[in-house]
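Design a sequence for this backbone.
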């Protein structure tokens, strides 16, 4: 199995035809909507309320190409992580964060964490529009979600340092 259909959850195998939505918000890496048939693609339209959309017929990769791509992504993530570790000037912070991670029971590995959007996009866009009269690009949502993840990691560390299992508003205060 390569992926599952986003509508009916039918498996889409390697080297099979599938459909994508032409709208960019449906084809992002984190959203990643894939459909096994035109009927499944059509079923997502009422929920997404696209103004102008069409289905794009694609072919899933071979098993070897998919594994190669996954390996490359893993290697790229490792390289980025190593570069960040090298650029860190304070080794004690790295030791503290590792100790903090061990303290938090049930902490998931970085690869297992959800990469969903963490903000309400419509409310963000409405606020920016009301505040400035400007529109908001879809790229802002991913950038803000990533920034929010980093703030949450620090707040979690603050709570763990205090010996708590609950993140409180005061854990964010030093970060803002």
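Sequence:
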């Amino acid at each position: 199995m390569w992926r599952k259909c986003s509508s009916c959850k039918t498996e889409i195998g390697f080297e099979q035809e599938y459909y994508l939505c032409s709208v960019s918000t449906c084809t992002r890496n984190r959203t990643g909507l894939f459909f096994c048939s035109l009927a499944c693609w059509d079923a997502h339209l009422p929920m997404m309320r696209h103004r102008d959309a069409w289905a794009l017929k694609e072919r899933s990769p071979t098993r070897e190409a998919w594994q190669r791509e996954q390996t490359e992504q893993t290697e790229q993530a490792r390289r980025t992580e190593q570069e960040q570790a090298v650029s860190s000037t304070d080794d004690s912070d790295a030791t503290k964060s590792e100790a903090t991670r061990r303290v938090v029971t049930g902490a998931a590995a970085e690869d297992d964490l959800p990469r969903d959007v963490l903000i309400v996009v419509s409310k963000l866009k409405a606020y920016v529009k009301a505040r400035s009269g400007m529109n908001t690009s879809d790229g802002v949502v991913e950038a803000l979600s990533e920034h929010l993840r980093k703030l949450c990691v620090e707040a979690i560390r603050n709570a763990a340092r205090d010996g708590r299992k609950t993140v409180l508003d005061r854990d964010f205060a030093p970060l803002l």
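The beta strands are 3-4, 11-12, 17-21, 55-59.
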